[in-house]
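Cross-posting from the chemistry board since nobody answered there.

I work mostly on the small-molecule side, so proteins are not my area. We synthesized 2-acetamido-2-deoxy-beta-D-glucopyranose and want a rough idea of how it might sit in this target. Sequence and SMILES are below. Is it possible to get a predicted 3D structure of the two together?
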Amino acid sequence: MKFQIFLIISQQFLYFASSACVDETRTPITIGKIQPCPFYDNKPVCCRQDNVDQMISNYRSIDATFGQDGGGCDICGANLKRFWCIYTCDPDQTNFMKYTGRANVTDPANKNKLIEVQLVSLTTKPQVACEVYSSCSRTSFVNQVSAMQSPGGFFNFLGEQAITQGQQFITFEFSDYDSMIMDDTWMCNHKSNITTVDDKGVIHYWDQYGYEIKQQCGCNTCEESCDANQILYKPTGVLYGFETSYVLFTWLFVILFALGITIIRKYQQNKKAIENLDIGLITS
Ligand SMILES: *[C@@H]1O[C@H](CO)[C@@H](O)[C@H](O)[C@H]1NC(C)=O
Ligand SMILES: *[C@@H]1O[C@H](CO)[C@@H](O)[C@H](O)[C@H]1NC(C)=O
């Protein structure tokens, strides 16, 4: 029995050696079912239960603003949810993101206030940024915010939403190397053939990562293509001065993305407890 435990521990050790969380106080562990990120169920992840709880509530905002319920497109919502799940939970986070220091920035929700934030740099492939942006670019929310009229502007806008409640400011880099892996992104006009039938005989459509696609996107919420070579980066908001519409919209919808990793300080204190938890999981 002892020998077996040793074997399991050494395998875990090898695994940890090649994958890492951006929060150095964490290692990827299995936390069971992850409702907002079904494709990570029972896999080792860098997120913890409090991150999961935050995602559950933030993802309601995604549905309300980018999804069908908000005059948008459910495939856009599903793509964004998967994107933030990878950001928050991926066991290989250090491959595509890093903490780059701390800074005092203007609070998007109150421009007279400075907030001290953790600076986070996240690298995505231009193609991935383009695909996710395409699935969202015609939604009414994106249409109304001038900062989101390019893939780069779109992601930087989302990154700034983490300032107020996540105390993180995420900047995006676009590169084919050392970047986030997000394969098989559906375009907004994709017709799902993955179905389930509920007790009442109603058919539900899903994407291949476990997100429900309640309704197909209509012509006016769907753009079929995006040119990955177009200008991907357009500085927005906080660090570059304000636009009235931007401030207004941020104030109206303080949408919470990417609380993810956060709560760093809390986990620094709990480091010991987490290490003990790891051992508990492995040996039980
Ligand atoms: C932010 O401002 C506070 C208060 O003025 C200061 O104590 C802190 O060191 C500043 N942080 C950074 C990263 O500049
Ligand atoms: C859905 O369509 C894809 C490609 O068109 C096919 O590979 C896949 O097997 C289909 N899945 C189901 C459940 O029919």
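Reply from a structural biologist on the board:
Welcome over. Reading the output above for you: The longest strand covers residues 110-124. The chain has a mean pLDDT of 76. Happy to explain the token format if needed.
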